[in-house]
Amino acid sequence: MRRIFILVILTFLPLFVLSGIGEGQAPAAHSAQIEYEKGIVISMESLDNNQRSKYAPLVEVSKIKLLTGEFKGQVVDSYHYLSSNSPYDIQVTPGDRVIVAITHDAGKTAYHISDYERVNYMYWLIALFALSLIVVGRKVGLRSLLVISLSVSLVFGLFLPEVLRGRISLAVLSVLVSGIIAAASLIIITGWNRKSFAAIVGAVGGVIIAGVLSVISIKLMHLSGLVSEEALLLKVALQSRIDFQGLLFASMMIGALGAIIDTTISISSAVYEIKCVHPDINFWELLKSGMNVGNDTMGMMSNTLILAYMGSSLPLMLLLTAQENVSWMKIINLDLIVTEITRAVTGSIGLIFAIPITAAVSAFLLKKDTCDNPPEK
Fold it and tell me: What distance in Å separates the CA atoms of residue 282 and residue 305, rounded to the nearest whole number?
């Protein structure tokens, strides 16, 4: 029970830390004379003829009760614009929870529906995910939650702040964070033993190979890293403070890390179990067995990476398919297209090379010795 309690604390502590980070950023909104608060739509009212002429092209007003902030408990009006191009033209019904933008201009305060409040439903979905892991996986499920929490904390607590500070090369930072995530994940799940050590060496080796290929590809193909709206907005907001090619490199490495870790632990676990069952097996037989397992895993995990990138790019692929009058040569050379293809292929190559590295290290570590006692599940 004590171990389970410690795992629960370690799992959710980083999430509370991240929540505190988010809360500490709230004053920035006040300095910009715009605040965002939660609210609930109480009713929808149509405007009469006099109001329609006064507020044209406004067509209706929402009564919203504010749930947070300085004006908590107050019922305010939010007018809906007829123009579908308005960023505040969000269709709501009574009972909908929304985010209200409160603006202060020339001494007047205005309230607009900025967006739906989605975070509560997201919390329920995360809770269901966590519960599923614990019910099905029990102690291993708790360890998995700890690994996920640790990975998220490292990205938000270490990687992103250091990117903004610009004190460390993005290449070095990416390798460092990837290595920490790989090592911590494998040690927490399987314990510290030869099996986890082999998987860590294979994962880091595969990620480094993927990283080297990413750097070469970015330079030779002149990839800018500015292929998404988010990247363009970031460039406008921070100007030249961010190395976008380095950020693209980091996204390629971190994106491939999960699949590579899955592959390496599968191979090292298989070699470990084979050694336990056949203590007299030699290095070459262990290596061959590890490679056979790796080859079977390789096809599925490479396909998983490709499908993951394709799934996230479905609108883009549909848009390109619909462009019948545009030259295919022009399309295939677009920065956006080449970036996504390069991201998927470099990650898959890193995964492929992680297989022989893991198999060789596992076979070498176990070639003479008997297997360790299986870690506690």
Answer: 34
CA 117/CA 148 separation, integer angstroms: 25
The two tokens of residue 359 are 């198999």
Q: Among 257, 264, 304, 290, which Cα is nearest to 363's?
A: 290
Sorted by where each begins, the domain ranges of the chain are 33-117, 168-366
Q: What span, in angstroms and rounded, lies between the C-alpha atoms of 217 and 240?
A: 22
How far apart CA 153 and CA 150 sit, in angstroms, is 5
What is the domain class of 168-366 according to CATH? mainly alpha
The total of other beta-carbon atoms located within 10 Å of residue 357's CB is 21
Q: Give, in degrees to the nearest 5, the angle at Cα 198 between 197 and 203.
A: 100
Whether the predicted model's global pTM rises above the 0.90 cut? no
Q: How far is CA 107 from CA 33, 67, 121, 238, in A?
A: 11, 23, 36, 30
Q: Which CATH architecture has domain 33-117?
A: Beta Barrel (2.40)
- d(Cα 121, Cα 162) in Å, to the nearest integer? 31
Pairing of strands 34-46, 97-105: antiparallel
Name the nearest CA neighbour of 362 among 260, 263, 268: 268
Q: Which residues pair with 80 in a beta bridge?
A: 60
Among 261, 15, 258, 7, residue whose Cα is nearest residue 142? 7
Write out the chain's pLDDT in tens, 377 residues. 444 444 444 444 444 444 444 343 434 434 447 888 899 999 877 665 555 555 555 556 788 899 988 888 888 888 766 555 555 567 788 888 988 888 887 778 888 888 888 888 888 998 999 899 889 888 888 888 888 888 888 888 888 888 888 777 888 888 888 888 888 888 888 888 888 888 899 998 998 898 888 889 888 888 877 766 667 677 767 666 677 888 888 888 888 888 888 888 889 888 888 888 888 888 888 888 888 888 877 777 777 777 777 777 777 777 777 766 767 777 777 777 788 888 888 888 888 899 999 999 988 888 766 655 544 43
Longest Cα pair distance anywhere in the chain, in angstroms?
Answer: 93
Dist. CA 115–CA 324, nearest whole Å: 36
Q: Which residues contact 4 (CB under 8 A, 6 or more apart)?
A: 139, 142
The conformation of residue 196, written as its DSSP 8-state character, comes to: H
